[in-house]
Write a structure and sequence with these properties.
Elements: H1 10-37, H2 40-59, H3 80-86, E1 98-101, E2 104-107, E3 136-137, E4 155-161, E5 175-183, E6 189-197
């Protein structure tokens, strides 16, 4: 009597190929999705670094065109600077924040209008926070306004203005909200902001 041979039938072999094929297709899809998305964290980190660089540049400038050298408040009409200076006697008037005028201690300067001033043609000329309002660089640029290599596809913009209401007890007229937005090549916006006070 002849013994049947052990092995797989054609149907079993086909079922095995189908199951393995479906599993491999799922793994391939997972691998492709992982590889495609792997650059996004790097792009976000680069955008965050660019935004931080822009913000540090803006915060390194005086609050206003008329801010005294070395810092100090500028009278904006809110009375904050006037009240601060009035608290000192003429003998203890803290220059350059306040100046001694006769027997009174008054603010050292008055506020000028926001935005760029005459003769400020580009970033190399910007000398106060308001000058940076409206920057829109594609690709991002350095402090001289020259495009930074290796950042093609990234865009940076800056908005500077007074907040809608007082911030942390400081009148809106004495506050600037600086918002830097850097968009990645994939279109994802990275936004950072800071407040700059009149002082």
């Amino acid at each position: 009597m002849r013994r049947p041979q052990a092995g797989f039938s054609l149907i079993e072999l086909l079922m095995y190929v189908i199951v393995v094929g479906v599993a491999l297709a799922g793994l391939a899809t997972l691998y492709v999705n992982t590889v495609v998305g792997s650059h996004e964290p790097l792009q976000r980190e680069r955008a965050r670094a660019v935004a931080t660089s822009y913000l540090e540049e803006v915060l390194g400038k005086p609050w206003n065109e008329n801010s005294p050298a070395g810092g100090g408040c500028v009278e904006t009409g809110s009375g904050r600077c006037t009240n601060y200076c009035a608290a000192f006697s003429p003998a203890s008037c803290p220059t350059p924040v306040c100046q001694k005028v006769g027997a009174t201690c008054t603010p050292a300067a008055s506020a000028a209008a926001g935005g760029t001033d005459a003769g400020e043609a580009g970033r190399a000329d910007y000398d106060d926070v308001d000058d940076f309002d409206g920057i829109d660089d594609c690709p991002p640029a350095d402090v001289t306004g020259s495009p930074i290599g290796g950042l093609g596809g990234f865009c940076a913009s800056i908005a500077v203005g007074a907040p809608a209401a007082a911030w942390n007890g400081t009148p809106a007229a004495d506050t600037r909200l600086i918002e830097v937005t850097v968009t990645t090549p994939g279109g994802e916006p990275i936004v950072i902001h800071a407040y700059r006070l009149n002082f």
